[in-house]
Write a structure and sequence with these properties.
- This protein is of the alpha/beta class and 999 residues long.
- Strands 1-2-3-4-5-6-7-8 form an 8-stranded parallel β-barrel, surrounded by 5 helices.
- The longest helix is centred in the N-terminal third of the chain and has 26 residues, at 142-167.
- The radius of gyration is 32 Å and the shape is globular.
- The protein starts with 15 loop residues before the first helix and ends with a helix.
């Protein structure tokens, strides 16, 4: 039996300075090697600058339309979306929108390349014909409408296709093989990549599997008689083969995906092809290696040297991955191929780490550190020859020259480039080193599938700082391109980007970001799950308060108001910050409690603990500023005018069951920070969470006289809001109950007290034909079905442009079918239970009615218990949905492109205004919707749930609430009264300060 290594494990986001301290000492080679590197790199750069390709290539396009220009950005968006737009009207709007953003009319083409000139000409023609206002919505005459718009459409689409042809080797594998044939005597090396997004549905995954299998067969039959590594290859993306390729679904992935990957590998072995598993995002690295290790372990692959994988040098774990791959090769007595790339999803990795509140970044924040790590990884891979066959993917002349110097003369490696890029560099390399092989990584697929890939390459290589952008720019000295990464870093302390704060410091200096974990880090996830499992609770029911106890709580809070309101703002803020610290240190305890009492999935429970901590810290920071001292107002000399805020008295806080910790603490801490005493009444379904939260606040220093807890049903809440001695009510819940509270407060004698209410909504999303279907599917499924649809912000009503509705609805339904419905304490669960039997009965009744009145697109299967499976219904008219349905039920309405105004009118007619989603690449459309919509939170090209405290202040208007927004800068002031103090400083005989002043 082979000695199989344990699963891969390495620190997910180690400190950049520690890595730099390890890499910098080896950052330079011997003086003779460095001189050889300079000579080689200079020769390659000169070849790039001398190249005059009359046809042109991708580099020419990138130089002509740099991403630092409006034209470059407009071109990127056009390329990403235009070819998937089926209808003429939307295409015309989209073209006008993007061409209007850049000055294509006056663009002076610098390149002589046909590709660039043809594209620039087409775009310039289009920009001239379509001037602002000259789409079908404008005032252009019939002749131009009839002749101009189609001409524009055709010219612009052709420009996009010209670009696509230079990025994509062929739309089919047969076309790609024909184009990849030898131009001289020797067959060039290729690795074919079947283009496409990751699978969202089982049908997607099967389609990609079939495409890979067919391509392997076709490539294999045309592969010739050379032996590895001088044979063609194919690149396989694991996320294209499984619709839930994610860490929490590991067991399912291993069961379902490993056999598929093994099947493809066996087919590739039959033809002795190079078979490379492509790299995924950092959170999928461990899962990817698990799948690869399980596949490699199969004895049927013995004797084949073609299996390989890609490793990203911008990931801090790259060196550890190389060690692990070497261990696998040893264990199975195999030779493996390793493609070393720098990495293409840097911006996504940075954003994800910030959103997740991680301790650090899994990727380097400085490009020079990636380059330095690439060289270190190259050195390690070269030392592992011949067991490992290194494949160095780069378009950087300095990197190529450095690898050549490290490699010596023993061979046993190859370079790789992207099709359409690096041609001049590798032509020169072939002349100077004919024994050094290079392989072309060649995308294959339809222009529609090309889009996301094309934009990623533009972003990766079109930035001003990239080597590709600088190499052909004569204004950049060659010496600047030869600067070694080690010299650019210089010291370990400079390894991190100075303007990219760590995720924990994202909101510094005001406050810390709440701390999360990455589920893709096995050790962190297992540690959390173990901590959750170890938690124990007193599960005895929490007794409801009596009306007398409720009255006593108000009286006690009123008695404590004087002392609490005089507590300095800094002291109150410190208590809230201590509460945030306690929350995070006991995160597993509160997650377990949220799962057991609130039915929260692991991801939802963790997010809620983080949101609660964010509320504490945000209101502490805001409170220091607002309540820490008075504000001097302008006025005449001899007079002091000061404005200050102070607490109102006793606030009643009534919170919902769907966010029993975050909203509960958000309400309570805001009222406390403003100097009020609080009587908190949680939802009757989740009292224990409130008990624990109040206990934590008391432990953090909030006196019992300032915070009282009263549990019970709606009758207790009604008694509290009717109490004559309360100074305000903050409420989150249904519109119906908010109205009842409002009537109660209005009917009372005495002071007029404020009601701060946040209620629900019939939240809509609009998706037009320019939207990326995969992104729409992701965001719709998340917005409609996460938390079992039990969020105030959840998507209820989706409007899809009719031209693309069939495909989008099919993809959304297919993605919903892949969700796991089950117990909240199972980490793999996507959709947990609804809150109680009463909620289930209401939702079941709505589903039964919809099955009679609407078209059913999808009905999931729910286990026994308080579970409601996701459902998707298509309505004939939005008016069929007359009230908020608080569960995992999505309603869809088709609309024609010219009727967008009617869609917005239908949304207005609901009377709600909480959240709205928009998916469109047309800026004018997005701006028009934002201008028209009376909605509190609008989300563009993303999901519409999970508002972040202090980032997306949350709350609506109309039937959705009173405002101000929770987690926003105007919230605390609503809990306070204002006081202006005016003092006549000249009353004692004149203004001494004025009299003493000099001219």
């Amino acid at each position: 039996m082979p000695n199989i290594p344990p699963p891969f494990a390495a620190s997910y986001a180690p400190d950049d300075a520690d890595i730099a301290a390890r890499l910098l000492p080896a950052g330079h080679l011997s003086s003779s090697q460095e001189a050889r590197i300079d000579r080689t790199a200079t020769r390659l750069i000169e070849a790039i600058r001398k190249r005059d390709d009359r046809l042109g290539g991708v580099e020419d396009m990138l130089r002509e339309f740099a991403l630092s220009t409006k034209e470059g950005l407009a071109l990127m968006v056009l390329a990403e979306a235009l070819l998937r737009v089926p209808d003429a009207r939307t295409a015309d709007q989209f073209i006008e929108d993007k061409l209007g953003e850049g000055d294509f009319i006056h663009h002076e083409t610098k390149s002589t390349a046909f590709l660039v000139n043809a594209s620039a000409w087409a775009l310039g023609l289009s920009a001239r014909v379509i001037q602002p206002g000259e789409t079908p919505e404008g005032t252009i005459g019939r002749l131009v409408k009839r002749l101009g718009a189609p001409a524009v459409r055709a010219a612009t689409r052709q420009a996009m296709r010209l670009m696509g042809n230079h990025f994509v080797l062929g739309e089919t594998i047969e076309q790609a093989l024909e184009r990849s044939g030898p131009r001289s005597g020797h067959q060039p090396r290729y690795s074919f990549d079947m283009l496409g997004e990751g699978a969202r549905t089982a049908a997607d995954a099967k389609r990609y599997f079939d495409a890979y299998a067919s391509a392997i067969e076709t490539i294999g039959k045309a592969a010739g008689n050379h032996s590895l590594p001088d044979r063609p290859g194919i690149s396989v993306k694991l996320s294209a083969l499984h619709p839930r390729f994610e860490a929490i679904s590991r067991d399912r992935v291993m069961h379902e995906l490993v056999p598929l990957l093994l099947d493809l590998a066996q087919r590739a072995k039959t033809y002795d092809l190079n078979f490379t598993v492509d790299a995924e995002e950092a959170d999928r690295l461990e899962l990817s290696l698990d799948v690869i290790a399980a596949t490699l372990a199969d004895a049927s692959l013995a004797g084949w040297d073609g299996f390989g994988l890609a490793i990203q040098a911008y990931q801090k774990r790259a060196s550890a991955v190389i060690d692990y791959v070497d261990e696998l090769a040893h264990a199975h007595d195999r030779k493996l191929m390793v493609r070393l790339v720098k990495g293409a999803y840097w911006d996504t990795e940075i954003k994800r780490a910030q959103e997740r509140g991680l301790d650090g970044y899994p990727v380097f924040t400085r490009k020079a550190m990636t380059d330095l790590n690439f060289v270190a990884c190259a050195r390690k891979l070269l030392a592992l020859r011949p067991r490992i066959f290194p494949q160095f993917a780069t378009h950087n002349a300095l990197t190529v020259a450095t690898v050549l110097a490290l490699a010596g003369k023993s061979g046993g490696f190859e370079f790789q480039r992207l099709h359409g890029m690096g041609e001049a560099l590798y032509e020169q390399l072939a002349k100077d080193h004919p024994d050094i092989a290079h392989r072309t990584y060649a995308p294959v697929g339809s222009h529609r599938d090309l889009l996301a890939y094309l934009v990623r390459r533009l972003l990766e290589n079109g930035a001003n700082s990239s080597f590709v952008a600088q190499a052909a720019d004569y204004r950049v000295p060659v010496a600047a391109l030869l600067q070694r990464p080690a010299d650019a870093i210089a010291r370990p302390q400079q390894a991190s980007h100075p303007r990219i704060p760590l995720p924990c410091d994202l909101f510094a200096p005001d406050r810390r970001n709440s701390r999360g974990i990455e589920f893709g880090e096995r050790a962190a996830l297992e540690r959390l799950l173990a901590d959750i499992k170890a938690e124990t609770f007193d599960l005895k029911p929490v007794a409801d308060a009596t009306p007398d106890q409720a009255n006593a709580a108000v009286a006690a809070a009123r008695a404590g108001f004087a002392a609490w309101s005089r507590t300095p703002a800094a002291a109150r803020a410190a208590m809230l910050e201590q509460a945030a610290h306690l929350l995070e240190s006991r995160g597993a305890h509160f997650i377990a409690l949220l799962q057991r009492e609130g039915g929260k999935t692991l991801d939802d429970a963790l997010s809620e603990v983080r949101e609660a901590a964010d509320f504490c810290r945000y209101y502490a920071a805001q409170g220091r500023r607002l309540f820490g001292g008075e504000t001097a107002m302008p006025g005449p000399t001899g007079e002091s005018n000061m404005l200050g805020l102070r607490g109102r008295g006793v606030f009643v806080a009534i919170s919902p069951w769907n966010f029993p910790l975050a909203i509960f603490l958000g309400q309570v801490t805001a009222a406390l920070m403003a100097g009020n005493c609080v009587v908190a009444k949680p939802a009757e379904q989740t009292p224990r969470i409130a008990v624990e939260a109040v206990r934590l606040l008391h432990e953090a220093g909030v006196p019992t006289s300032a915070l009282r807890l009263v549990t019970g049903d709606g009758r207790i809440g009604a008694a509290l809001t009717a109490h004559p001695n309360i100074a305000g009510v903050v409420f989150t819940g249904s519109t119906e109950v908010a109205r009842a509270i409002n009537r109660t407060l209005a009917a009372k004698e005495g002071p007029i007290v404020p009601l701060i209410a946040e209620t629900g909504g019939i939240n809509a999303m609009i998706a037009d034909a320019t939207a990326l279907p995969e992104q729409v599917a992701d965001d719709v499924v998340t917005s409609a079905f996460r938390s079992a649809g039990q969020r105030c912000s959840a998507l209820r009503l989706l409007f899809v442009q009719e031209d693309v509705a069939d495909r989008m609805i099919e993809m959304i339904a297919g993605a919903a079918r892949e969700l796991k419905i089950g117990d909240a304490d199972d980490a793999a669960t996507h959709v947990g239970p609804v809150i109680d039997r009463e909620a289930k009965q209401r939702l079941d009744a709505h589903i039964a009615r919809m099955k009679k009145e609407a078209r059913l697109h999808f009905a999931g299967t729910a286990p026994d218990g308080c579970f409601v499976a996701p459902h998707i219904f298509e309505l004939k008219d939005a008016g069929q949905l007359a009230e908020e349905v608080f569960g995992p039920i999505l309603h869809v309405v088709r609309y024609p492109a010219e009727k967008l105004g009617q869609v917005l009118a239908a949304i207005d007619r609901t009377g709600y205004g909480l959240t709205l989603g928009v998916h469109s690449r047309i800026d004018d459309t997005v701006e028009a919707i934002i201008d028209r919509a009376q909605v509190g939170n609008i989300y563009v090209n993303r999901n519409m749930i999970g508002a972040v405290v202090g980032v997306q202040p949350f709350g609506g208007n109309g039937l959705s609430g009173t405002g101000p927004k929770a987690g926003g800068p105007h919230y605390l002031a609503r809990f306070a009264t204002e006081q202006t103090v005016t003092i006549n400083t000249a009353a004692a005989g004149g203004n001494a300060a004025l009299l003493a002043g000099e001219e």
